[in-house]
Amino acid sequence: MSNTNRQVKLARRPAPGPLTRDVFTIEDGPIPEPGPGQFRVKIEYVSLDPAMRGWVNEGRSYIEPVPVGAVMRGYAAGYVEVSNHPEFKPGDAVQGLFGVQQYAVSDGKRVVKVDTNLAPLQRWVGGLGMPGWTAYFGLLEVGQPKPGETVVVSAAAGAVGSIVAQIAKLKGCRAVGIAGGPEKCRYLLDELGLDAAVDYKAGKLAADLKAACPHGIDVYFENVGGEILDTVLPLMNTFGRIPLCGLISAYNATTPPPGPRNLRCVLTQRLKIQGLIVFDWADRIDEAIHDLGQWYSEGKLKIREDVREGGLDAFPDVLNLLYTGGNHGKLVLKV
User: How confident is the model at residue 324 (pLDDT cuts 50, 70, 90)?
Assistant: First the structure.
């Protein structure tokens, strides 16, 4: 066991654009000792999520920004080492918002015990963890798909999108995924079994998407924004639903991106656009874990992680892969 706790901390607020290494510092601190009602976790995997780009910015959001000088916020999974908590014992595999560090102390709030017999530990910060919960509630509660409808998902090869698309199929829908490049599109068709895949990098987004959705679009699960949203809006059917999960195309913008050009479609087609944050269903997470776990155990849900080596020192560089499309599946950093 190491005698120190390696941590990634926020050094300063970033400028617009890609995050640079000097936004973070990597430090060694003391290993924390749990107090009464607490336990210590040795972290094995850290989840890298698009939301991290917003968490380091100053300004109004759904959650307070990470304070300068604090450990970077992040979901992680590991094993309980020492416990003074009656519900957690040494050896328990757990997942929670432990931060980007080697060791964390917790009082157990919003910490989930995970079953590593069902799935490997890293999968519990991926498709069976927060990204999977987001997909589950975002599609089923906000999108409300009905059998026979067409569901389109942007960033469909990513952590959230890949789960959304598969749930759409499980619910009897036509599932169409938008992704960047032929390799990701082949994955959507050959591995995930989607009905169609559209490569937005091929230069024919509007024509290809229209061909993939001959009866229009009933539900569009939005992860990207920008040109893709503008292309989707005219194809939406009347009373269509748009769960808005992310706008990753603008996260590293150096100037404010333009608003949607086709916003009038929201009026003429009477569309519903609703933002969503997984915390909105915090009291129902067990429901998502149960259903996702059951589908996974039955072989109906396929999950892929892109696990990167290099430890916490690699965090700043690996994180930026999310915003360039350099990852293939849920991006996870092995501590």
Answer: confident
Q: Which amino acid makes up residue 289?
A: I
Task: Look at residue 1 and tell me whether its pLDDT is greater than 80.
Answer: no
Strand partners, 112: 95
Write the single-letter amino acid at 11: A
pTM of the model: 0.94
* CATH number corresponding to 4-126+304-334: 3.90.180.10
Q: Which CATH class is domain 130-279?
A: alpha beta
Distance CA 169, CA 137 (A): 15
Are residues 133 and 281 in contact, defined by beta-carbon separation less than 8 angstroms? yes
Q: Is 82 helix (H, G, I), strand (E, B) or coil?
A: strand
- DSSP structure class, residue 15: P
Q: What are the angstrom distances between the C-alpha of 166 and each of 140, 162, 241, 300? A: 12, 6, 18, 8
Evaluate whether 4-126+304-334 and 130-279 have a shared fold: no
108: Cβ–Cβ under 8 A, 6 or more apart, which residues?
37, 38, 39, 85, 87, 88
Delimit the domains of the chain by residue range.
4-126+304-334, 130-279
- Residue 286: what residue type? D
